[in-house]
Amino acid sequence: MQVTETLAQGLKREFKVVLPAADLATRLEGQLAEVQAKARINGFRPGKVPVAHLKRLYGRSIMADVVQEAVNEAHRKIVEDNALRLALEPKIDFAGEKDELEKAFEAQADFAFTVALELLPKIEVGGFDDIEIERLVADVGEAEIDEVLNRLAEQNRTYAAKEGDAAIAENGDKVTLDFVGKIDGEPFEGGAGQDVDVVLGSGRFIPGFEAQVEGMKIGESRTLSLTFPENYASAALAGKAAAFDVTLKSVAAPAEVKIDDDLAKAFGLEDLAKLKDSIRSNIERDYDAASRRKWKRALLDALDKKYAFDLPEGLVAQEFDTVWRKVEAEQSRSGRSYEDEGTTEEAARSDYQKIAERRVRLGLLLAEIGEKAGVKISDEEVSQALIERARSFPGQEKIVWDYYRKNPQALAEIRAPLFEEKVVDHIIGLIKVTDKKVSKDDLLKIADEDAEEAEDEASPV
Fold this sequence. Notes:
By secondary structure, this protein is of the alpha+beta class. It has 3 domains: 2-118, Alpha-Beta Plaits (2-Layer Sandwich), CATH 3.30.70; 158-254, Chitinase A, domain 3, CATH 3.10.50; 270-453, Trigger factor, domain 2. It is built from 13 helices and 11 strands. It has helices at 21-38, 51-82, 98-105, 142-155, 209-213, 261-266, 272-306, 313-334, 345-373, 379-391, 397-406, 408-428, 440-453; strands spanning 2-9, 12-19, 91-93, 111-118, 132-137, 159-161, 174-183, 186-199, 221-227, 241-254, 432-437. The strands form 3 sheets. Strands 6, 7, 8, 9 and 10 form a 5-stranded antiparallel sheet that branches. A hairpin with a 2-residue loop joins strand 7 (174-183) and strand 8 (186-199). Helix 1 (21-38) packs across helix 2 and helix 10 (379-391) crosses helix 12 (408-428). The chain starts with a strand and ends in an 8-residue tail after the last helix. The model has no long low-confidence stretch (mean pLDDT 87). Residues 172-267 form the PPIase FKBP-type domain.
């Protein structure tokens, strides 16, 4: 096998591989000899089938295997002999005239093909002491804990059935209803319900529905005249006038809300103090996550500016295709055009090309930093993340689990963000970080605005 480098430009390499006809013939004969030893063909004794006969029957199929083995061997040889780090799988081109290829398949001519490769860039990581970011910090106030406590108490509120003359629906009562909605006298899909519970004044139904139920007595029926909001989720109902035939089946008055140890026990905690501690921890976790979104974006921005190196065109093209498919899917879902967004398709493609380049650059950089730092993701960590992913699909947990476990590429999508977060945590310990106290509202506002801007570009995975 003769291997000759024909191109070395940037991250691109090409090699011409020639497998002499004599070598092809030798390989083919070796394969035919193995087949002869095992072949069982009617009319011939085991192991005595003439090679010429086997060649007529299986020669082309065996030669295809010989060629594939030669391609794989050439690939390994090129990578090992030149110590290459590939960005993508190689591209094989069996260039040549049809007659020449046919002769090669008959082992009557040399077999030649080219191997095109794209390499990973060499990245000099260096230090990070020139990077400085600001980390927003917000304290959890008692008012925020009390707000959550009140919400939990409201969710845990009990109701006492009303009877006799007092059994009239009022704002704040929990009522049980049967109803049928109609547009132009005809029932519409999703507009009916039986034994539906609703707290009047909760805003669960469309505007005006709950208010018109107030004053009804148990067993009473009414027809409510309403109009669906113009921005209603269902376009078929938005802005439409509707009539609802409603029957009140029961009504219960709200009991006094108590925030005490019994409330804590209803949520599986020992006492009110433990419930407050749990609420504080949850809020702190939310604030830390919001702050992390902000400072992580700032860190990635700094890394993007600090490092410049050649990018594998194939990786960038793959990333662009992924991003662009999401853009087109969102346009299809929303019905908005480039003109609606004040741009053109050409300008949008240019912007998303830059986003794709950024994502590839940061992905390669973080991978290099993580490798040099010895960052590892354990199987246990992957399994725990997979469990959390499966839990987000209630009733389909086993299907989701099996899908990822049987698909290494899909499982890599679970591992990649875990690796990224660990690398980010490693870097944050090496740079200068200044904490800045802000209010809860400022923290959440800044983090949310930043998250919207960075939705497509902040994270490389």
